[in-house]
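Let's do one together. I've listed all components of the complex below, 1078 residues spread over two lines.
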Amino acid sequence: MGKINTYLFLLVSCILLAGCGHSGNVTVSEELPPVYPDYTNVSIPYNIAPLNFLLRNKPGVVEIKLKGKTKELLIRDSYKVQFAQDTWKSLMEAEKGNTIKVQITAKVGGEWIQYAPFHWHVVSEAIDPYLSYRLIEPGYEVWNKIQLRERNLENFNERVIADNNLTDNSCMNCHTYGNQDPNLSFFHLRGATGGTILNRNGQLRKLTTKANELLASLVYGNFHPSGRYGVFSSNIILPAFHTYKSERLEVYDTESELYVLDFDKNRIIPLPEDTIPEKPFRTFPVFSANGTSVYYCEAPRVSLPDSIHQLMYSLHRIDFDAASCTFGSRVDTLFSASEEGKSICHLKTSPDGKYIMYTIADYGTFPIWHRETDLQMIDLNTGEINELQAVNATCSDTYHSWSSDSRWFVFASKRDDGLYGKPYFSYIDEQGVAHKPFVLPQRDPAFYDYTLKSFNIPELSKGKLPFDALDIERMYWHTEADTMRLMTH
Amino acid sequence: MKNKQMRYASWSLSLLFALGAFVFFAGYYCYHLVYQEQFQLFMFSFDYLAQTTHKPGGFAEYISRFLVQYFYTPWLGGLIITLLLSIMQRQVLSISLKVADKPAYIPLTFIPSLFYWFLLCDEHYMVAGIVALVLVLAAVQMYNTIRPAVLRIVYVLLMIPLLYLLAGGTCIVFALLCVLLEILKKEIDTRKILFFVVGCILLMLCAPLVAKAILPQYPLSKLWVGVDYYRLQQLFPSTIWFLWILIVCIPLFFRLLPDVQKTKHSFIWIGIQIVLLVLLSGYGISLRADWQKEEVMAYDYLIRKQRWAEVVEMADKKAPSTPLSVAFLNLALCKQGLMADKMFHYYQNGSEGLLPTFIRDFAMPMMAGEIYYHTGFVNTAQRFAFEAMEGIPDFQKSGRAVKRLAETNIINGEYTVAVKYLRMLQQTVYYKRWATQALAVIQDENEIELIPEWAELRRYRTKTDFLFSEEEKDQMLGILLQQDYTNRIAYEYLMAYCLLTKDLSSFFNYYPLGKEIQYRQIPKSYQEALIYLWGLTNKDLSAIPYLIHPEVMQRVQEYGKIYATYQKSEPMLGTQFSDTYWFYLHFRK
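Okay, and this is what the predicted structure of the assembly comes out as:
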């Protein structure tokens, strides 16, 4: 009986080895495998969906060996590697806090090649499990199909939370959370019966401002940590078109101003009157994590579009008292555009209050079209600037958002092809060091090859939003808007 | 149809109809079909199949887009439309004869196909509609083959949701026809018929509601219809309702009209119907066909194919009059090296007939983008292509626009994004070869430089950045010319812009910039402008310091005499001098 078992074991082993087909005939390469998306040597949260990828050289068979501290997996697949979700989940759970070595051997043109291994560092701090974004083609002035979608980062489930097909083809701006709370968010829905859709405590409201009271429509905004207030900029935005080869679009404000909205009392509070005759441009306001200050970008007026290269925004801070809803009188400058020779925009304070992350560009106020655009963050305690070198690429990196624990952030990057923005996630460790980012995994790893959509303003959230596209359709067509009134000084 | 003669007559009529449809669509109206092709991008991929068929009516749209991709070849487009119209006619005939074997009314069965023919004269009516109808009528034909009444009813109740999935709201035609046929068969009692009708109504009502619950991102109104009959999404033309009712009514007419087969005059009846149909066809086509649009589309097709000489030939036969067709002619003249000499031989439409201004639309930027591409405004051409594709009302992509995006990105050296577009085009029938060649070429900069069109556009493109201004096209052309003074197209467009806007002082200032182009002689329209300018301040025309052809010199004197002598000189000058710049200057907008 023992002999039979031994023979059986040998037979099964032979069959398995024959199946593997590369024993002894493997060329060892020192190069990393041509995986797309680039998931080599990245830090990933343990609760992320499977990092499906493909090999650009389209091998016939791929063998992937995942070796962690406690678990080991051997998978064979086609050139598209798609992990079973259960297997992936159990691997991630088991290797929380550990590093997984990924060894790929592929049969390319009849020859087996073993590529240099790469690693996945499985971070034990979870990323907020939901992500919202606006899917839109990176066009110029014309838009067609716009959707706001919510994706569960722990799997591949995605749903539409607003669709302009249902709202008279009206434009809609990106969706913004307060405190990464699914029960506190807003987005602007344009069109005849549109308004700012406010989701607060799970209740939806539609807010409008009285005609001509504000400079223009409300655009960029952020919630006060209490959820009662929002700080917004109102901008008159114009596009212009570059003619030089890699340049594309320039978007600039001809007017911009800041306001605080009191959602309880339906009122709008302007910033204190300017003492200087030429009102500067002010935009991208955010509250500090504790709600006692407002950070914003400010630039002196220049003749536009002729002097667009001289348009540079600085980072300012002004006190805000939530109890009386008043601003302080002193304005601090945290980043001076004239000194640094750069322009700053898209401010985001980390929920733990330590940092402000922002986008930096050579000039202008809408740098998603600027190749040179990078992310940076300023340490609010030391004033030190972190240039996030591990994060930035040669194409536009911007539209960032923190996770609720301040250990992860997501941003839109055009690093792949220079045009289509995709959400990338990066880990910030205890020392404040940002790790190499990875793109949002998709069920089909070829997804990004064929999508013609950009993921605008990806924002992380602790939970699922309490509304869907049908609610927004109802809000657009059938809900009366609450009118916000502007208070005078 | 038991009568052999009638069977032959029926097939003969169908063949005649098919021949007429083919001659019309392949011969006279083919550019409307080519036009359709550019507003879709059919790809042989599972992803595209899934994206198209996931909604009610998606299958019909998938089939339609598969067919429409062949409209790239004009005669093939005509053949496909002919086949679809003919199949529908035979289906209506087959269903009608099942109701009542009255072949004397065969001509009536042509009416729905003729009606769709008329509809297709409007470029916004889609082929998906007729595909959906063919699917639905095939299901009715299947119904007719089932003998047991219970099975028939079960079949209908099962088919309604399935057909809704395949052909969208068009399945109402199936439900109505089956109910009608079932009533006419009189094989089941009234109570059962009532239940059957209620079942059909409930299914028809529930199907879109269930679809809305599954696909909340689509408006309910869209889910009722499903298939895109009309490109402009916000409209569902009442003509479609009429067409649906018409298809249901034809079999009913077969039952209700008297049987003339047994009379001696059945062929006279058929003859009268045929005459009426021919008259109806003539009237319908004259009412619906838009020959001016067909002309613009023809120009656009020839420009797209870079058949410059044919554009000029076409204009010689009939001068273009719309701004866009005039702009196409000017481009063709310029590419042929004829613009500076001959542009005023044709009707001119001001600066819009040269470089059309962008409008938020899907068709105009797609067409006008050709002009910006060939004049060297590569980024503007890219913008027009992108915006045109984004503007397509039924959210489809465009093979033509994606190709242009790939080209402009290659010219700009943006290879990664170009590869993305080329990979998409590799999944198509007509763009695959080009995309594969382009993919091979972009591996090597030297290879790109060997492609004359791309190399030339690279040579002329701007080396410094400036913001494009629609309001200052002359300045844009001037900056483009500054990059390379041998750029003949930029120079001639700049001069033409000055002439067309009647800005003669700018013309005079910019004129010397052309010395690098080394014309053998001053182009005719420039001579005309120069002599006119000279004449404004000098009495002695012969003293002009430019080489003016004696004929131009003689003609300007004759023109001047008539212009000065007669107060209403336009008609007289028009007969002799409509090909001159002076006539344009004095009498055109």
